[in-house]
Design brief:
The complex is a heterodimer of chains A (195) and B (381). Chain A has 195 residues and is α/β, with parallel strands linked by helices. Chain A has one domain: 3-Layer(aba) Sandwich (Pyruvate-ferredoxin Oxidoreductase, domain 3), CATH 3.40.920.10. Chain A has 6 helices and 6 strands; from the N terminus they run E-H-E-E-E-H-E-E-H-H-H-H. In chain A, strand 2 and strand 3 form a beta hairpin. In chain A, helix 1 crosses helix 4 and helix 4 crosses helix 6. By secondary structure, chain B is an alpha/beta fold. Helices cover 38% and strands 20% of the residues of chain B. Chain B has 13 helices and 15 strands. Chain B is globular, with a radius of gyration of 21 Å. The chains are: A alpha/beta (195), B alpha/beta (381). Chains A and B meet through helix 1 and strand 2 of A and strand 1, strand 9 and helix 10 of B.
Chain lengths: 195, 381
């Protein structure tokens, strides 16, 4: 699966949550996989407050098959919210037919019934015993949900970005996220239509 | 025959692209004081310069000392740079003047953030444009460049070093927080694809060397300190031997040469990008990250049949007068969106001189100007 097979015109994704959840790393890895492995045009921007941990954190991706002019998203196709605050704040930026992905362990009040909910933080804590793997678990789920993002490409990028000693754990997290999403939502990619 | 290696691709921040560009240009000295949003430049240099045979990275006590160290390194023959943001750039102003007067080639990257003072460390702005031009006292020419995307960060850094070396002048590269903190794919050019300019080194015997002599280009050759060519470096107005002078004819000769060395090469220094301007009736003049918003706006305007064009300023100073003048003559309306209260629009209005209508879009709330805002002004009559 490559940029040649999928025509994307400004597909916009926002990854949001709290500082310390690894949102910026997630954005970087996802962007790198899409740009270098798949060959899409990608711009990844980020926003963070002055505080390092606990504050709001977000990372935005614009993915396109043609060069991207304006680097920031305007209407989101996908919103990933790993905290209640982020979900409340950014839901209004989501397109009417956009996809909301939430961490059901962190987000309790949902603005819509139409969402994909996976307890990423809980899975990371209980299955992997490392809460820091939340972001890579999310990446695994996104590999399943987004038809143009290949899990092998993501795994390859993980190996390039992370130091050797934590790669095994991260590949495990990636696979767990992927299989959990597949198990909970067996039919979701059919909803996507690309011209 | 061995296959040529494929060009290396990176998914990098604007700041990281600056580091790659500097290294490709031959930079081997960095002195600075980390400041958001330019920190990744210092980080990248700290990681990469020590790997070079003669690479030096120094974290100085402040920005005044940083530029002092850069001037020293450059006089000793190195290609040297520093990177900072608004508050640090203010501290550097005195030494920028010294570098202009002593004709020291160097590159300063200023990643603009909201101001004045400490301002908005994590938000973008374009408020340092006129400061880059006139921040240091005294009448002086200077080269100010800008970049709007990540690949351009790399190429404009190389251009900045080339201009600095070619014209023996400090060059300021103005980025903004959005450009510096956007990740995109960049392609690293192979060294043989690049034109890298190095300063002219004197070849005459040392005793014949006249450090600030008049030459055709107005740029005297520059030996590295310690190579046998002895000369006096000063911030005082000096004669061609480098010694302080107060004789009117010598002062005038120096000042005119300083201006002439830049003025007569406007065609070389003034870099712009024209997008769909041939038949444009409305032209947007933009630079930095706002140029990207403008690009989407004019694409959308063209789709709806409005003849809109875009002039991206890559060189801010010396102001690309001829390009703006030509477009002002041709079109009905010139729109200048910028993230300040009107620093480049002031230049555009000066050049426009009644030829066309100049409309400004000013935003100073730490947010990037959106394509929608520009589009509205394109349609509005």
């Amino acid at each position: 699966m490559s940029a040649k097979e999928f025509y994307l015109n400004r597909f916009e994704i926002r990854l949001s949550g709290l500082g310390g959840q690894g949102i910026l790393t997630l954005g970087k890895i996802m962007g790198q996989a899409l740009a270098l492995e798949h060959g899409f045009y990608v711009t990844q921007t980020q926003s963070y407050g002055p505080e390092a941990r606990g504050g709001a954190s977000r990372s935005d991706l614009v993915i396109s098959s043609s060069p991207i002019s304006y680097p920031k998203p305007e209407n989101l196709d996908v919103l990933v919210a790993l905290s209640q605050e982020a979900c409340n704040l950014y839901f209004r930026n989501l397109k009417a037919d956009g996809l909301l992905v939430v961490d059901t362990f962190m987000v309790e009040q949902l603005p819509t019934n139409n969402y994909v909910g996976i307890p990423f933080t809980q899975l990371a804590k209980e299955k992997l015993k490392v809460v820091q793997a939340t972001n890579v678990l999310t990446l695994g789920a996104l590999c399943y949900l987004l038809p143009f993002l290949n899990k092998n490409a993501a795994a390859k990028t993980l190996k390039e970005v992370f130091p050797a000693k934590i790669i095994d754990k991260n590949i495990k997290a990636l696979n767990l996220g992927y299989s959990k999403a597949k198990q909970l939502y067996p039919d979701i990619p059919k909803k996507w239509s690309f011209s | 025959m061995a296959r040529k290696p494929k060009r290396k691709e990176l998914f990098a921040l604007g700041n990281e692209a600056v580091v790659e560009g500097a290294l490709l240009a031959g930079c081997s000295f960095f002195a600075g004081y980390p400041i958001t949003p330019s920190t990744e430049i210092a980080e990248g240099m700290a990681a990469k310069l020590p790997q070079l045979e003669e690479g030096v990275f120094v974290q100085m006590e402040d920005e005044i000392a940083s530029l002092g160290a850069v001037i020293g390194a450059s006089l000793a023959g190195r290609k040297a740079m520093t990177a900072t943001s608004g508050p640090g750039f203010s501290l550097m102003q005195e030494h920028i003047g010294y570098a202009c007067m002593a004709e020291v080639p160097l590159v300063i990257v200023n990643v603009m953030r909201g101001g004045p003072s400490t301002g908005l460390p994590t938000n973008p702005a374009q408020g340092d444009v006129q400061q880059a031009r006139w921040g240091t006292h005294g009448d002086h020419p200077i080269i100010v460049l800008s970049a709007s995307d990540v690949q351009e960060c790399l190429h404009m850094t190389i251009a900045a070093f080339n201009f600095a070396e070619k014209y023996r002048t400090p060059v300021i590269l103005l980025l903004d927080e959005v450009t510096a903190h956007t990740r995109e794919k960049i392609v690293l050019p192979r060294p043989e694809e690049l034109t890298i300019i190095n300063r002219t080194i004197p070849t005459m015997p040392p005793e014949w060397y006249v450090p600030y002599e008049e030459t055709m280009r107005g740029v005297p050759p520059m030996p590295p300190l310690g190579s046998g060519y002895r000369y006096h470096v000063t911030g005082l107005t000096h004669d061609e031997h480098g010694y302080p002078t107060s004789k009117a004819n010598e002062i005038s000769a120096l000042m005119h040469r300083l201006f002439r060395k830049i003025d007569q090469f406007f065609y070389d220094i003034q870099l712009v990008e024209e997008v769909e301007t041939e038949d444009a009736e409305v032209v947007v003049v933009a630079y930095g990250c706002v140029a990207r918003s403008a690009k989407l706006a004019i694409t959308q305007a063209r789709e709806s049949g409005c003849k809109a064009g875009l002039l991206v300023l890559k060189t801010l100073f010396p102001f690309p007068r001829t390009y703006v003048e030509k477009l002002a003559r041709q079109c009905k309306k010139v729109i200048v969106p910028e993230m300040n209260m009107g620093q480049i629009s002031r230049e555009v209005k000066r050049v426009n001189n009644g030829l066309s209508r100049v409309v400004t879009i000013n935003r100073v709330d730490g947010q990037i100007i959106t394509p929608g805002e520009i589009l509205k002004k394109i349609y509005k009559d």
